[in-house]
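Q: For a teaching session next week I want to show students how multiple molecules come together into a single three-dimensional assembly. I've collected the sequence lines for a complex. Could you give me the predicted structure tokens for the whole thing so I can convert them for display?
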Amino acid sequence: MGTVGTGLSMSLDGFIAGPEDDVQRVFAWYFGGDADYQMPSGTMSIKISPASADLLRRVHESTGALVTGRRTFDLTNGWGGRHPLDVPVVVVTHSIPREWASDGSPFTFVTDGVESAVAKAKDIAGNKNVGVGAASIVQQCINAGLLDEIHVDLVPVLLGRGIRLFDHLGIEPITLERTRVIEAPDVTHLTFRVVR
Ligand SMILES: NC(=O)c1ccc[n+]([C@@H]2O[C@H](COP(=O)([O-])OP(=O)(O)OC[C@H]3O[C@@H](n4cnc5c(N)ncnc54)[C@H](OP(=O)(O)O)[C@@H]3O)[C@@H](O)[C@H]2O)c1
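A: Of course. Below is the structure for the complete assembly, covering every listed component.
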């Protein structure tokens, strides 16, 4: 059985997007390195450091499904029909967009909450891992105790305003064990295990 974990780029002051959903600064590390890295879908190429490329390759090979929120899905226009990781995506929403919900689509729309969405993604992923993205979904997953791992790509910028990742948490303190630190010139990859 795989793990359920986050994978988000975050500013040092905790934002995964700036005002008006601007992700340019938090994703700057995707375009500042020397190594060409082809995303699994083959539809997107990025330029990152060798250390980041090595990590992304391992993360991408071990990811079997993603869970995200409807805003992220809409903002990316369903990633043009196929997520760059080329894995099925479970979208949490209050209303199913019929134009996207066809047979054979890589998108599954779930209207009964994050627990159901994560269960669906685990089914799809089999032995592989489930990646959870977008702020509101991560927050609900933390509140519901659904995460095994928290991974953030920490970007050296202070955004001041925008969408905070660790917001709206109604929790008692959760102990984390730091399991991996990878330093790259323009990003620090941090992974923590949720201690239960
Ligand atoms: N830095 C990164 O790595 C990264 C990665 C991904 C996204 N982002 C950014 O994160 C931002 C989006 O995050 P967000 O938190 O604002 O939005 P989100 O999580 O993508 O989507 C929120 C929406 O999902 C639906 N939803 C959430 N929980 C639900 C529930 N329990 N039941 C039913 N529907 C539910 C609702 O939409 P409906 O009511 O319309 O159905 C809600 O408005 C964007 O700026 C995006 O660019 C950053």
